[in-house]
Structure formats: structure tokens, C-alpha cells
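Friendly challenge for the regulars: who can give me the C-alpha cells for this chain first? No prize, just bragging rights.
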Amino acid sequence: CEGGKVSIAVGAASNICNSCVSGESNNEDSTACISCTAGRYNPSAGGTCIACGKGKASTSVGALIESVCLPCQAGKANNIEGNIACSDCQPGTSSPSTGYLDCAACVAGTFSNVTQATSCKTCGLGKSTSSVGSTSCESCASGQYTASKGSATCTFCPGGKALNEAENKCQICESGFYSNPGASECTPCDYASGYVSKPEGER
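First reply, four minutes later:
Bragging rights claimed.
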């Protein structure tokens, strides 16, 4: 018998196949009708069970209509047809709305440290991550800063300036002080050796 139909006749001389009702289909040897398993449905008598599409899932057994296939909730995804459940987005990924096939990796400058995230968080001032799919942001090294939140990299202060970590910005060295690039503080000039500083802000 063709799909969606069965025959219980033994030694039948002709093709005696009966249609299964909606929500059912034939078993492997077409001797009995069985309910569509979870993740599938069949709206037509004599038809075969149809798998729920990607981005959806269903726990209903013997389902008649496609509407039992529900879109994955935000924070979840499913890339397999006929699935009974959507998978949680793992740390480093997110899905902001329903029906996602795959959770999206957090872009550089953002991170996610929880499961079922619906969005990635931006790195705060003084922190960064250049990796895709990050679960955390790293603090900038000494003498470095970030110009804004969500930065992928940290930046060195130029010579003649030093980092004010509390305010996350570079400040000009005062007269009588100097700094090399990346310095975390300005250094007094060695007057005893005859050195003096250039105008403020110069290396």
C-alpha cells in the first residue's frame, strides 16, 4: 500500500488498501495506522505525517494541523525538521525573536554569559572583547582605555598623556612631567640631571 494507507487482508488477490484517518499514517509494513508522532502532523485522510519545519517544534501526538508546530521562543532555536523541542541558546549566543533556526553568536564588543539569552550585552567602559561568541569582556591592560562602550579593542594613551582609570580617559601630563605611550601615570622630569619637560601634553 502507498503511504497513508494500510491493508489487513491476508492473501488478498487485489489491492485492498484503506486510508488512515487524519492525524495518523501507516506503520512500516502498512498493516496498521499509527498516530503521527510528536513533531509531525497530518491534515488529510490517507496522507502521510508531515514534519514541523525548522525554527518550530511540537509535542502533540496525532496532530491534524500545522498550527501545532509552534515557533521557537526568543532565546531558543531549532535547525532540525520534525523536532519536539527547541534548544536553549548557549552562553555567547542569543536569539532576539521567535522562530530562529540557529542562535546568533555575539559580535565583537558584546557578550552573553547566560543560557536562553534574547540579546547580547555590550562591554562596559574599560573592557573589550575582539572575539565572536564571547561569554565575558576583558579589562583593558594598564595604560589602555576604551573610547566607548561595546569596544572590540582597547587603546593606548599617546605619549604626553596618561590614563585616568576612574574616568576611563587620557589626561595631559602637567608641566614638569612626561609619559611614554601606554603609560598609566605621568613621571616627573629628572631636574637634577638637567631635564625639563616640553609644553603640556607633549612627550
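The mean pLDDT is 89. The longest strand covers residues 161-164. Your move, everyone else.
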